[in-house]
Write the structure tokens for this entry.
Amino acid sequence: MATKIGIIGAGGMARYHIDGFRKAGAEVVAMADISVEAATISAKANQIEHVFDDVAALLASDLDAVSIIVPNKFHGPLAVQALEAGKHVFCEKPPALNAAEVREMIAARDRVGKELMFNFNNRARPESHEMKKRIENGTVGRINSAQAKWIRRTGIPGFGGWFTTKALSGGGPVIDLLHMLDLALYFMGNPEPAHVIGQTFDDHIDNKDFKGPWGIPDREGGTTDVESAAHGFVTFRTGQVLAFQMSWAEMVKREEVSVVFQGVKAGGKIERLFGSDGLDETAIDTCELYTQESGERVDTVIEVEECPDMGRIDSAANFVEAIEGRALALNTAEQGLQLMQIIDAVYESAATGRPVAI
Ligand SMILES: NC(=O)c1ccc[n+]([C@@H]2O[C@H](COP(=O)([O-])OP(=O)(O)OC[C@H]3O[C@@H](n4cnc5c(N)ncnc54)[C@H](O)[C@@H]3O)[C@@H](O)[C@H]2O)c1
């Protein structure tokens, strides 16, 4: 029988989850949102039969799994509630507001024996798949160092709403644009972090000239208390190192989403450069490996299929395949915990001006 899934949160991301679950053969049968109007509109557009304005009612219905696509503050509590109702959970990124909440989610998963995965959709991009294959087959060798970036000049996703309210989001671009940090860790083999040093900046964070071309509506009189940019460095117990830069508003040329790494045998780059409008249609993708062969420099372009959705559909499909035992999970909750420990440490280092030991 097909896996039955319910969606919690009818916002912009829901359609990718629905497409991915259906691609993997699951049935998407129910949708819940605190706005019953939003749930009704999305359910109708996506041919979903049942609509709920209450998550408990959705969880009491006949479902195997749920997907959580709501503001970050609710990821932890809703995941615990859904796991305790006996459902597998696929939760949007970031895993939660902080590492302590992810520990509670993992404890609930272990109590009930269900799956808990996060939507690190960039791991499901064709570029990432090709690169991971070359890392695992020994072409790259040990990755000593990597640089992870998601940087924007004008990319604040709405003013005064949940994105810019730390109590609801957990922070600004560090937590919102964590994808490349996650992808670099994935390529490096998720080594155990040792120390983190970071700095955050809040320039332009309430300047509407720096708004992105997407996001959620502005809220007059709402809160804006998150960073606009961050830079930092992570060391690992293995001796590997990782530099990162994330921004919503910073004086950079164009939006860049990239992981560059230096392996002992090969270096590599996965990069998406967005056009000045910041939209997917104008993006330029690069996937390359750099080696020395017989005394010559060899730069290899890895050709992949275009994937404008940045792996979102295949990431949701992988969740279904993983809970049905047809594929290995593309991420584990423990890796989500490790990422949140690093993010907690970035904020602590920025607040104290000191390196933080993990
Ligand atoms: N993986 C990606 O590429 C990606 C991209 C954008 C957003 N996201 C993540 O998706 C999540 C949602 O973002 P969005 O842009 O869709 O937000 P959104 O504000 O557009 O939509 C969120 C929806 O959740 C509903 N909601 C809020 N609290 C709820 C609750 N407690 N119970 C049920 N419904 C609730 C809201 O009414 C709204 O309809 C965030 O965690 C964000 O980080 C991921």
Q: What stands out?
A: The first strand starts at residue 4 and ends at 8.
